[in-house]
Amino acid sequence: MASTSDIRNGMCIDMNNDIFIVVEFQHVKPGKGAAFVRTKLKSVTTGKVLDHTIPAGHKVDDVRVERRKFQFLYADGEDDNKRYHFMNNEDYSQTFISEKMIENPGLLKEGTEVDILYHAAEERPLTLEMPQYIIMEVIYTEPGVKGDTATNTLKPATVETGAEVRVPLFINVGDKVKVDTKTGSYMERVKQ
User: Fold this and answer.
1) Is the pLDDT score of 34 beyond 70?
2) Residue 98: what pLDDT?
3) Average pLDDT of the residues in 175-190
4) DSSP symbol at 187
5) What is the mean pLDDT of the chain?
6) What CA–CA distances, in Å, run from 56 to 7, 14, 63, 177?
7) Are 69 and 87 in contact (CB under 8 A)?
């Protein structure tokens, strides 16, 4: 058991028969009334983010998690039952995770190192965390035209994993782009 003063970003808590990760928190002490903690919690099973208020001094059930490094190998299965296979970097054991546990599975390319959060007591994977940015090569997009750099217009581009990313008009086939894995959005062009 932990108190509201122990709440921090990344902490896992057990609430309503589900495990939630604290995405954001703020201790609030209003001028009138009791203090409380305003939190944004992300469900590990559904991925939904909800706002939750906890009175100050209230006890919460914290869950001990372990962060383990894995390398993405390959994906198999049909669209509704796709599984992603990973290899542990320390003991070379393999595991798989269902697609619903991954935030942007289209941005996973072979060899990418990821962190998998494990429930320490039950030895089961909870969620997968990708690196913040990933560099991908554009394999298809409409050609850019000279002078297209003046506007902030975006066009669709297919990257090497098959995912579609919206990029500026000056990006061409063969360019490498930096993509944010949380939002799936273009960040910048990478010089080769």
Assistant:
1) yes
2) 84
3) 90
4) E
5) 87
6) 11, 18, 19, 45
7) no
pLDDT of residue 146 exceeding 70, the answer is no
Contact residues for 96 (Cβ-Cβ < 8 A; gap 6+): 83, 84, 85, 86
For the chain, the C-alpha Rg in angstroms (whole number) is 21
Return contacts of 90-95, CB within 8 angstroms, 24+ apart. Answer: 95/70, 95/125
Sign of the dihedral through C-alpha 7, 11, 24, 47 = negative
Q: How far apart are the first and last CA of the chain?
A: 51
Q: What does pTM read for this prediction?
A: 0.73
Closest by CA to 134, choosing from 89, 96, 95, 165, is: 165
3 state SS of 42: strand
Name the residue among 184, 50, 40, 68 with its Cα closest to residue 126: 68
Which of 104 and 148 is assigned the larger pLDDT? 104
DSSP code of residue 99: G
In this structure, are residues 108 and 162 in contact, taking their beta carbons and an 8 Å threshold? Answer: no
In the chain, the domains with their CATH numbers are 2-62 (2.30.30.30), 65-129 (2.40.50.140), 133-190 (2.40.50.140)
- Element spanning 116, H or E: strand 113-119
Condensed to tens digits (0 to 9), the pLDDT of residues 43-59 reads: 887 778 899 999 988 89
